[in-house]
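Let us practice reading a record.
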Amino acid sequence: AAAAAAAAAAAGKAIQGEGLERLAEDLGVGLDDIFFLVFAFHCECKTQGVITREDFFRGLRSLGVDTLQGLQAQVQQQQQAPYRDLLLLRRVYSFAFGYALEPQQKQLPKDLAAAYWLLLLQPLQWCLLQPFLQYVECISTLRSINKDVWLMVLEFALSCPTSSSSSSSSSSSSSSSSGSGSGPVDQTIDRVLAEYEDDGAWPLLIDNFVEWMREQRSKK
């Protein structure tokens, strides 16, 4: 169980494979939960899926706990922490790129990048997340994502209104526009696409995505 994972770390053994699965089970979260990425960030892990003895105890110290019970009590707080502190979100997001890389790689395969985007950006309620992932995985000819593009995708997402804010901000006017057939999220997406600066400093991936989205919206 989780105690076995701590014992392994105390004995100088890395926690990985079944050890990580047992730790996740006892903490009550999946290995694909944002908590494990945040914890890996605090541990300063060098290899995805491997927590060394030094990593494990560094992570506990960083979170201000010294027992597994203390770590378990931190789960919900750490799941939410990056979305309450944009500086922390940017740091965890930047860390995730290097953490996900295979040895000797400098770019993320686009399917792996998409999986991490879903994990990291879904809590932001970014109104363009699902079409962006569809574009990356099914439309774009890019095979991999470099770090500059990776970082700019977060900034693009943060520059857009969230789905929840667009819903709440337009609720007061929804009754007057109920016959238009356009919901608040659709209106937000249309506004983002209209206000996007084609000659801005965004990477080509985002430029091409916006162009594709405009084409899709024009067909409706």
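A brief commentary: The longest strand covers residues 15-16.
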